[in-house]
Amino acid sequence: MLVQAVLRVAGDQVCQNQFVTKKDLPSSSNHRSFDKAEEGSAGDKGRVDWRNIWEIMSAQFLLGSAMLVYRADFAVTVSQRYGTSNTSNGYISALSSTVATLTGFAVGSIADVYAGNTRRMFLHAAVAESFSLLMTAIAPNVTLFIVCHTALAFATAVGRVASIQTLLDRGSKRHTGALIGTSATVMSVARMFAPTASGVSQELLSYFGPYFLSTALSVTGTIVFLIIPSKTHTETHTE
Questions:
Q1: Regarding predicted confidence, which is higher, 126 or 57?
Q2: Quick count: other Cβ atoms within 10 Å of Cβ 87?
Q3: Can you tell me the distance from the alpha carbon of 161 to that of 152, in angstroms, rounded to the nearest whole number?
Q4: What is the mean pLDDT of residues 50-76?
Q5: What is the DSSP string of 150-182?
Q6: Which of 98, 102, 185, 207 is buried deepest, with most CB atoms within 10 A?
Q7: Dihedral (C-alpha) 88, 90, 92, 97: value to the nearest 10 degrees?
Q8: Cβ neighbours around 27 below 10 Å, total
């Protein structure tokens, strides 16, 4: 009888301990809530902060559209303005392409001058592009036009690289694909928009239309990028 009483007391104590342990543990609903909270937090971290890069996308679209409008009917407008032949137009295009190619090899050295500040390099390239477009629009002779056209090729080659790098610096390593894909989509929209805009401007303002329209687009893109302050604390591409 004494042994039975001891066993009964021990069994009651074990049951009481198990009840307390189950009471202290979180319920299955709490587990699900915790898992959902973790999933929501991970989802937030995986999203691209578009508010942090919208001005870069806008500047890319406007500056890219400016160059596409400028080049849409390049040979026709140059021939109408200065009476150049198709051979001369080919030489002008070849010169600008050569300058752009050589600039592409030198972009790394140019970036070193800016000590990795790609945003400033992009801004300077945008200003140079706007000024070059303005000068091509008002160039009184073909010689000055060729000089400005060559400077424009240099500015756009630098700006093309600087814009992509600035965009990536605003994001993180896991967003590289989304950022590059979105940038390509923005430029595809610009390519669709440019021929129509160039034709309409040429219809309204003769052969000066595309030059003044491209200048206006480039200046607008530069102003947008200039007046929007850069965030001090941003995620870097090496995050």
A1: 126
A2: 8
A3: 15
A4: 87
A5: HHHHHHHHHHHHHHHHHHHHHS-GGGHHHHHHH
A6: 207
A7: -170
A8: 9
Calpha distance 217→191 (Å, rounded): 14
If you search the block for the tokens 């198709």, which residue do you land on?
Answer: 86
Please list, in sequence order, all residues whose beta carbon lies within 8 angstroms of the beta carbon of residue 132, skipping any fewer than 6 positions away.
148, 149, 151, 152, 155
> pTM here?
0.74
Enter the tokens of residue 219: 């200046």
- pLDDT bracket for residue 21 (50, 70, 90): very low
- C-alpha span between 100 and 162 (Å, rounded): 14
The CATH number fitting domain 54-227, selected from 3.40.50.720, 1.10.3720.10, 1.10.10.10, 1.20.1250.20: 1.20.1250.20
**Which residue bears the tokens 């401007």?**
201
> Can you say whether the dihedral through the CA atoms of 134, 138, 139, 142 is positive or negative?
positive
Other C-beta atoms closer than 10 Å to the C-beta of 156 total 26
CA dist list (Å): 173 to 1, 167, 180, 232? 74, 12, 11, 19
Q: Are 145 and 82 in contact (CB under 8 A)?
A: yes
- Over residues 82-107, the pLDDT tens digits come to 999 999 999 999 999 999 999 999 99
CB neighbour class for 114 (10 Å; exposed up to 12, middle 13-18, buried from 19): middle
pLDDT of residue 48: 66
Query: In Å, how far are 198, 200, 210, 220, 221 from 207, measured between CA atoms?
Result: 10, 11, 7, 21, 23
Residues 68 and 193: their CA atoms lie apart, in Å, by 9
